[in-house]
Amino acid sequence: MNTDVIIVGAGPTGLMLAAELRSAGVRPLVLERQSQPRDTPKAGGLGGQILDLLRYRGLLDRFEAACTDPIPAPRFPFGGVHVDFTQLAESPMHALPLPQQQLERLLGEHVAELGLDIRRGHQVLDVRQDVDAVTAEVGGPDGPYRVTARYLVGCDGARSRVRDLAGIPFPGTVYPEVNRLAQITVPDSVTRLDNGDLEVPGFGTIRAGFTRTDRGLFGMGVSPTSEVLSVYTVEDETVEYDDDVPMTVAELQDSIRDVLGVDLPVAETLRLSRFTFKARHAERYRAGRVLLAGDAAHLFPATGVALNAGMLDAVNLAWKLAADVHGWAPDGLLDTYHEERQLAGERTMLHTRAQVALRRGHDPAAEALRSVFQELFIDEQPLQRLAAFIAGADIRYRLPNPNNHTLTGAFAPDLILHTDDRTTRVAEIMHAARPILLDLANRADLRDAARGWQHRVDIRTAKAENCGADALLIRPDGYIAWAATIDEPADTAEDGLRAALSLWFGTPAATTSPTSD
Description:
This protein has helices at 12-23, 49-56, 60-65, 100-113, 161-166, 249-260, 306-325, 335-360, 364-376, 380-391, 426-429, 444-449, 490-505, and strands at 3-8, 29-32, 46-47, 75-78, 81-84, 95-96, 118-120, 123-129, 134-140, 143-154, 172-185, 191-192, 198-200, 204-206, 209-213, 216-222, 229-236, 268-281, 286-287, 290-292, 298-299, 416-418, 423-425, 436-439, 458-461, 471-474, 480-484.
């Protein structure tokens, strides 16, 4: 056995998985077919539940500091409709203006600090597995070689070689629309009006926001703090583009001309990217000792969700793989990766397919549908629900829940915690990426019940306001595996806690005598 885990692909999902595995005491091998990090613009930002997770790892400040643009207010497109979450007292959906190239650089630096290397220019040619191991045939700069591991994870994108070699079906729909996105400035001959519109000589006014024509969709947004314009076009085309071939300024201007009938002068380009939309979902995330994560497992037909979903796949998978590698994983633990993350993928697929229906219609009925949605998004309750939907914050895993607690299966809230000597938060005590039993009601009975698992589970005591629970068992991925109701009787609470600890963290070690802290 050469290594414990092979990760194929050094994009955000693969790098996040590598970092999480290393934090859990596993040293993976990362293989990336590209010899250098790609500079082709892809995602323009990072948003959703993953930002909360990064805060729980103590990394969010670092990512925010790397943003060269101000962090924007939470306003997002949804199927051609503008949604303004600034109306909410606390929006679940936020985003960082962090282009994917920068994100990969930050994650690469983090992985290097953890002592891991990335083998760039190493392409997986074949994968074989048996009941004990998986073997990858790799083509590298110095020739072919073979590497064997307990598990191999395909984080190798939409055209995943690993997925194909593992024989995992990837059904779905390919949409004909081609999307082009750019950040540009315009010359002085173009006048920017106070309301965000543009006056173009020989044409007239280009309005900010979305403009639909019988040839496609044009969108334009203006930064209030800079001269940069965000420009977006959508056209139906039969041409298949290679994602690795960058878009040119001429291609952008041709698309604007096709959709709007205007030659828009461009002074400077800060970003040019092109993408198509597909709705595909792997039938299973695991085939024996081969697993999938990120775009290799799912492709969503809307922007702003892929990085969030892929990196959260990695966080869910890492601690379960580590448990197996370290030899203490309970039966079926690794199978819960597919069960939980396919559920999350289906939820993301649901709202992104809904966006397809909203944005692709061009008749009066479609316009009416968008107008109805726009009116609904004025009200707080649907706005709150949609924000959680887009962020992935509405995911509640279907976990055993004998006392029917509303928090079981949900992401742990970032409670303010008061201990005897200081005030802290859930985010801070999660930095080590270890499971935590958080006693919020000084329940010595529950702490004693968990004593046999204290080599794997940190036991903390604190007070928190308006939590709705006497105790929380929090998994390394931030999700609540079990919660005690307020004043829950000792017999049911102890039985429930022991069952959850055994289910997620294996057999307890022998204990001597109970203590209280």
